[in-house]
């Protein structure tokens, strides 16, 4: 399957470059793995197994996308899961807004010359105050990575609305906007206003 995806991507990239000036890349679902001291070999193994081999395919791309939601420690026996007492999201992921910065820094070591776009970042929670906190932490870690010279070209929060999430249906709340499934009325949450304020401030600062 990995070989098939790789061949398909390389073939599609060649066709697109032969027929236009489109910037070509693909997006990779990554985990911000952190090695427990002494478990660096295991960390390298699982990093490559999970995402590095896909990132490496993008070394000649125009950009690479990252989908990142959480971080996880890797011990000698592999990924350890959330630590006892950790705050968990509806998907049982650890609440780790700093995972974005960790993932950006790691990806930049694998594809150092390729611009990065954060194509997915967020969390499933019914408590929107935690989403606001997540956004603040994620943006802080993003700014820190950019300040260190990592070439990040864009950030997309997942998701705009509470959506149908695979086998979980509508039970998870990823959205910046709530949806009444009876009336279909859409109501922006405080997190939507928070992200909007951050974007407006960034735009003013650039101008």
Give your account of this protein's structure.
The chain is an alpha/beta fold and 207 residues long. The protein has a single domain (24-206), classed as Glycosidases (TIM Barrel, Alpha-Beta Barrel). It is built from five helices and nine strands. The protein has helices spanning 2-18, 40-57, 99-110, 128-147, 190-206; strands at residues 25-29, 32-35, 63-68, 71-75, 78-79, 116-121, 152-155, 177-179, 186-188. α3 (99-110) packs parallel to α4 (128-147) and α4 runs parallel beside α5. The longest helix has 20 residues, at 128-147.
Write the layout of secondary structure elements.
Elements: H1 2-18, E1 25-29, E2 32-35, H2 40-57, E3 63-68, E4 71-75, E5 78-79, H3 99-110, E6 116-121, H4 128-147, E7 152-155, E8 177-179, E9 186-188, H5 190-206
Parallel strand pairs: 1-3, 2-4, 3-6, 6-7
Antiparallel strand pairs: 4-5, 8-9
